[in-house]
UniProtKB/TrEMBL annotation:
GO terms for molecular function: carbohydrate transmembrane transporter activity; maltose binding. Belongs to the bacterial solute-binding protein 1 family. Residues 28-52 are annotated as: Disordered. GO terms for biological process: maltodextrin transmembrane transport; maltose transport. It is found in: Cell membrane. PROSITE patterns: PROKAR_LIPOPROTEIN. It holds the Pfam family SBP_bac_8. One of its GO terms (cellular component) is ATP-binding cassette (ABC) transporter complex, substrate-binding subunit-containing. Its main location: membrane. This is Maltodextrin-binding protein.
Length: 420
């Protein structure tokens, strides 16, 4: 018995020793695991604490507007701990491209006319707008179309502009509602505009069904040009009549001459945009603005321009840049309206009392509802010169509307071909 008791005691001691040893190993592994978890958490926290960045914004707006944008950007910078520089810039596409590709370009371009976007996008310089940056339904639909390319958004709309009909209130109490009214009143009080400028005269071609490029579900087709269809030719005939039949203006009239004649009271009707408003006010011209008159019972489409902002695809701070741009888009609409007569594209700001009570800018906003964004694809650069030449030939009587339209489209097609 003593022998077995002694053996049992030895076995018991061995078991106890093994138990202690195993417990120690388990504790060590547990501590190592906890240490590893703590290390991972610390790393994650370190990664979340990003170093402040400095963003650069280039802007094509006016100096007073840029100062206002800088003021608002400073508030974002203060809230986020980052820095922002908003700089005036009037460089062309090539200068931006060179700067961007060399790492010296801006993170954001703010206030660029939307019709430049196609050229920038084709060169790979635009970052696509991420989901959640804006709610499209908050914006005037036309402005979303203006910053979209092949169905994708590459910029955020900031403001819009188009042209309308200025009328002298000392000569005209009620603005012309129809094209016939415009012609009748024009014969009584005078009517002029920059007639050989395709930007303005497009409205009379579009009124009858003319178009630049066919819009196929949000994608513009440069192979389908509608500037020599029956509607466009009818519009060119009307434009010729403004000069040859009604003698509203000479064939060589320039925009500055028409503007001066309206400002001096020599004419009572004039087509232009918001950029002329302040000058007329300072000159104490008695005027108001109305949407363009209807044609055959339908609103007359005008060209619309949209000031847009985009993030450079070469920006090293994409997340911060989009966060800043979202903040600027939400907070600059009313200040730009007050500072630069920029017509808001945010529905909420359009419904602001300060905006609604401004009869003049509201008239442009009404016209913008029927406006067509200037095509933003690179092919549009091949349109302006042939279109301007066609208008000059028609108004001077050197070509019929039919021939001028056909020649114009052929020249546009040739120009597009050289781009490819």
């Amino acid at each position: 018995m003593k022998k077995y008791t002694k053996i049992f005691a030895i076995l018991t001691a061995v078991v106890l020793l093994l138990s202690v040893a195993l417990t120690g190993c388990g504790s060590s592994k547990t501590n190592e695991s906890k240490s590893s978890d703590n290390s991972s958490n610390n790393t994650a926290q370190t990664q979340q604490k990003k170093e402040p960045v400095e963003l650069t914004v280039w802007s094509h707006l006016t100096d007073p507007e840029i100062a206002k944008v800088q003021e608002i950007a400073n508030k974002w910078a203060q809230e986020t701990g980052n820095k922002v520089k908003v700089l005036a810039d009037q460089s062309d596409f090539q200068a931006f491209s060179t700067a961007a590709q060399s790492g010296k370009g801006p993170d954001i371009m703010f206030g660029l006319p939307h019709d430049n976007l196609g050229t920038f996008q084709k060169a790979g310089l635009l970052a696509e707008v991420p989901d959640g940056v804006i709610n499209k339904s908050d914006y005037v639909p036309m402005s979303i179309d203006a910053v979209s390319y092949d169905g994708k958004m590459y910029a955020i709309p900031l403001s819009m502009e188009t042209y309308g009909l200025f009328y002298n209130t000392s000569k005209i109490q009620t603005p012309p509602a129809t094209l016939d009214d415009l012609i009748k009143l024009g014969q009584q009080v005078g009517f002029q505009y920059d007639i050989n400028n395709f930007y303005y005269s497009f409205a009379f071609m579009a009124a009858y069904g003319g178009y630049v490029f066919k819009n196929n579900g949000g994608a513009l087709d440069p192979n389908d040009i509608g500037l020599n269809n029956d509607g466009a030719k009818k519009g060119l005939s009307l434009i010729r009549d403004f000069v040859k039949t009604y003698k509203f203006m000479t064939a060589d009239i320039k925009g500055d001459i028409a503007k001066g004649n309206f400002q001096n009271g020599k004419i009572g009707l004039y087509i232009s945009g918001p950029w002329d408003v302040d000058g007329f006010k300072k000159a104490n011209v008695p005027f108001k603005v109305a949407p363009l008159p209807t044609v055959d019972g339908k609103p007359m489409p005008s060209f619309a321009g949209v000031q847009a902002a985009f993030v450079s695809a070469n920006s090293k701070h994409q997340q911060e840049a989009w966060d800043l741009l979202k903040y600027l888009a939400q907070n600059t609409a009313l200040p730009l309206f007050e500072t630069g007569n920029r017509i808001p594209v945010l529905n909420s700001v359009l419904n602001n009392d300060e905006v609604k009570n401004n009869d003049i800018l509201n008239a442009f906003a009404e016209q913008a509802k029927n406006a067509i964004p200037m095509p933003n694809i690179p092919a549009m650069t091949a349109v302006w010169t042939p279109a301007g030449n066609a208008l000059q030939l028609v108004t001077s009587g050197k070509a019929t509307p039919d021939k001028a339209a056909d020649d114009m489209v052929n020249q546009i097609k040739q120009g597009i071909a050289t781009q490819q």
